[in-house]
């Protein structure tokens, strides 16, 4: 099993990297694409079988609120396949104080044992909540590295933030 030591950096050059993300309004997608430009690897967009409405209120106060309150993890269009990867970046918006439910489905539907997970979160002011703890709970026997938590307000001028974060965890 691959366990990164606490505080130790990991070498990316000999690892296979996947960047998996869910994004409803585009912020997390934007960060995922920035990460791909910086570290390479493959990218996978997590999408639900039944798409969320395009209307904010219908999504936030309708379906997403219901899924949060009833702990519903929606079916995905494609559960993805992490088996060939060593390091999986996982991106989610903060939705109702935790990760978006489709990311929960993604975590539950794949076997992450022995892999390194690197979370990234965009939020609207609430911060990262317990998303890292929730990721650890849903993915057994993984090593979860320090997350990137981004307050998505207006212009996502985040290159420095992403660089500083990556510099602390990879070389
Ligand atoms: C359904 C829903 C729930 C949200 N819940 C929260 C929340 O609990 N805390 C928060 O800070 N932002 C919340 N937001 C704001 C998003 O986290 C923020 O806009 C994020 O950057 C959106 O990412 P995306 O563009 O990749 O979908 C919520 C947005 C939506 C649509």
Helix content: 25-40%
Pairing-aware structural class of the strands and helices? alpha/beta
What is the number of E strands? Answer: 7
Name the CATH class: Alpha Beta
Strand-and-helix sequence, N→C? Answer: EHEHEEHEHEEH
Mean pLDDT: 93
Secondary structure: elements and pairs:
Layout: E1 17-21, H1 27-39, E2 42-45, H2 56-69, E3 87-95, E4 98-99, H3 101-109, E5 116-123, H4 131-138, E6 143-144, E7 148-151, H5 159-169
Parallel strand pairs: 1-2, 1-3, 3-5, 5-6, 5-7
Antiparallel strand pairs: 3-4
This protein binds flavin mononucleotide (FMN).
Flavin mononucleotide is lined by residues 23-29, 59-60, 64, 93-97, 122-126, 152.
What does this structure look like?
The protein is built from five helices and seven strands; from the N terminus they run βαβαββαβαββα. By secondary structure, the protein is α/β, with parallel strands linked by helices. β5, α4 (131-138) and β6 form a beta-alpha-beta unit. The longest helix is centred in the middle third of the chain and has 14 residues, at 56-69. It starts with 16 loop residues before the first strand and ends with a helix. Flavin mononucleotide (FMN) binds next to α1, α2, β3 and β5.
